[in-house]
């Protein structure tokens, strides 16, 4: 029987209000801006048409042509790109040409720092030895007391010819020939760091693409509000002089992973970081294996204990997940109890509130994913949102069971 006394009306209104408000406590509802692509030049129209021309053969541009292009884009600085492959000869062979052949008006160099006895990588590098942009060096096998990845990056920075240095992962590939231009246009006076957006390739399982973007939205919002915490992406530009003066990775050298996180956490101050997430400035990361996927979560759980501002960063995701689960628990409990007690007005309100929650979250989530070209079916959004907290709990249990010496280079 439907009743409309004060208690029933208040309970019904509360259920509907909770459904609406908790749907807005959602990273998809908080808008993340997408940077428009436009090179720092007075001839934007010519920039647009240049992408339609046939690319010139490697090494065919004359010095005069390079000088003309540099005059068209005077604010693009020379830049050094560092790769530190480790057992990635196949990815190096496939992706290195995409970086060497970037359409960049100013000079740039690609530095590859590889393990000394990695013969497969050496064979790949020999095939590109004639390219004037490429410089190779090797790290000794005897390094034991610091992360080899961080050592390789440090050696690459010291070898860099230019003050602006870009570190990226060779397992990623750029979306086009203007990727370097899109990142480098942010290398302006007063800036020290440029973070480049990265997403998984389309062949990656839907849940992994969803989770990465869902969590990355918290970092992107922090960048755009000058509160940078860490870096879940695979492209980072920084100044060589700043890196060397602050002694690079000092303070976290023993941690095997987390180079991007430690860099941003240490060097990001106030508004000295710029975030580039235009389609042209995006890197595509190859689908991770199960081992890589799990390792990424476990290493992050270790590294975040040694980062500053961790509590502030984790607060908002905690609130969002509490609101998400709390709303569903409240609506389902109200639905069940009111049905058993024959309180049909509250039953109807609880049912309406539950449907409203689903519709709002599906609509908000699908719109946000579409803006970043993530083609994930709308019906998967609700279970994927719920799964994040439970999968995180599973990773946390595995982390607590793991040997903590697996996360550091000091094997005592």
TrEMBL record:
The chain crosses the membrane at residues 7-29, 339-362. Residues 40-62 are annotated as: Disordered. It comes from the Bacteria. InterPro entries: Glyco_trans_2-like, Glycosyltransf_2, Nucleotide-diphossugar_trans. GO terms for molecular function: transferase activity. PANTHER family: GLYCOSYLTRANSFERASE (PTHR43685), GLYCOSYLTRANSFERASE 2-LIKE DOMAIN-CONTAINING PROTEIN (PTHR43685:SF2). This is Glycosyl transferase family 2. It comes from Prevotella jejuni.
